[in-house]
Write a structure and sequence with these properties.
GOLD_dom_sf, about 35% helix, Helicase, Ruva Protein, domain 3, four-stranded mixed beta sheet, CRAL/TRIO_N_dom_sf, CRAL-TRIO domain-containing protein, disordered C terminus, Jelly Rolls, 3 domains
């Protein structure tokens, strides 16, 4: 049996019923009563009930910590990202599924890396997935049948070595990991534009939904065959937009920082016990030479008594030797939070780290946000 709605074995139906019962305390009723939704998690783990439930529970935690519901509702994606990320939704395929088109040859990873913090790169990338989920729901209502995934067209024609930027790679690997862990079976089909692609495209997507630059009929409001007004034109980002140019003048005097040397292959973990929901942890740090990895970890006590170290902000390398790294995180739940400065990847160089950490109560947090932009989720 396929494991899809209407095609379940007795064992698969039993697993579905048990999963629904096990997660009744964490899911909204709309999702709890949705067989299509629950079966996605079961199929992703070959109907292993324990693994499926674990995956779904982690997804609920992920959605809460990353404030996923706000990504589409608040529509606060910066114009700079919309303009220079060369991807977007251009219509629907022949079966009614949304079509996402991305031109990787026009993607400037170095520019993105210098304009956005790692958490922003991840968050804005995931926003496209959340938009796709919303489009699937709208299509399902419109067509009267379930649409569960998207078709992705990836244009590699202009791809070259200039599209690869080593410091950016870990962040987009993290995006792929989050995608695989939290959006099972969302990718319906991937179509690669390179050699002999047009016949394959037309098999799944109407010509009117394919950009004219790829042999279709679709142009944007300006007549652009690349549909830049729809998906963002991409291209090299001017250095005037780079983050270092925006914040360099705001760095604090060196005397305001605490200082510590982190030995090679070692790390520094700063632990904070947070008692009040809404408490804000703020940080600013830099190194004299070389980068260092940084992230925020929340200790999760599971029902079985085990402790899980959950990265609410992924531990990734930060080029803070160029300009001080700043950020903050709102602790929605009480508990133990760890700021981790990780030099374990470096077997040669120790790092001289200067840092400032502030913990603000909800009232102080509110006053702090009145005149500042919140950079992290």
């Amino acid at each position: 049996m396929s494991g899809h709605v209407g095609d379940l074995s007795l064992e698969q139906q039993k697993a579905l019923n048990q999963l629904r019962n096990n997660v009744a305390n964490i899911l909204p009723q709309e999702e709890l009563s949705d067989d299509y939704f629950l079966l996605r998690w079961l199929r992703a783990r070959d109907f292993d009930l324990q693994k499926s439930e674990q995956m779904l529970r982690r997804n609920c935690r992920f959605r809460k910590e990353w404030k996923i519901e706000k990504l589409v509702k608040e529509d606060n994606i910066p114009e700079l990202w919309r303009k220079y990320y060369p991807g977007g939704y251009i219509g629907n395929d022949k079966e009614g599924a949304p079509v996402f088109f991305v031109n990787f040859g026009r993607f400037d990873p170095k520019g993105m890396h210098n304009c956005f913090r790692p958490e922003e790169l991840i968050k804005y990338s995931l926003s496209h997935t959340e938009e796709g989920m919303q489009r699937c729901r709208e299509q399902s209502k419109l067509l009267g049948r379930r649409i569960e995934g998207v078709t992705v067209i990836q244009d590699l024609n202009e791809l070259s070595l200039s599209n690869f930027h080593r410091p950016t790679i870990p962040h987009f690997i993290k995006v792929m990991q989050l995608f695989e862990d939290n959006y099972p079976e969302f990718l319906k089909r991937a179509l690669i534009v390179n050699a002999n692609y047009q016949q394959v495209l037309l098999e799944y997507v109407d010509r009117d939904t394919i950009p004219k630059a790829l042999g279709g009929n679709l142009v944007d409001e300006n007549g652009d065959p690349h549909c830049s007004a729809i998906v963002g034109h991409g291209g090299k980002i001017p250095e005037s937009y780079y983050h270092s140019e925006l914040v360099k003048s705001n760095e604090r005097p060196l005397g305001d920082y605490s200082s510590v040397v982190i030995a090679r292959a070692d790390c520094l973990q700063l632990k904070y016990e947070i008692e009040t929901p809404g408490t804000l942890i703020k940080w600013e740090f830099k190194t004299d030479h070389h980068n260092i990895a940084f992230g925020v970890i929340k200790l999760i006590e599971n029902e079985d008594g085990t402790v899980e170290y959950y990265e609410v902000i992924p531990v990734t390398r930060r080029n803070c030797q160029l300009v001080a790294e700043e950020g903050d995180y709102v602790c929605e739940d009480p508990g133990t939070y760890i700021l981790k400065f990780d030099n374990s990847f470096s077997w040669i160089n120790s790092k001289n780290l200067q840092y400032i950490v502030e913990v603000l109560s909800p009232d102080e947090n509110m006053m702090n946000r009145i005149g500042t932009n919140v950079r992290f989720p």
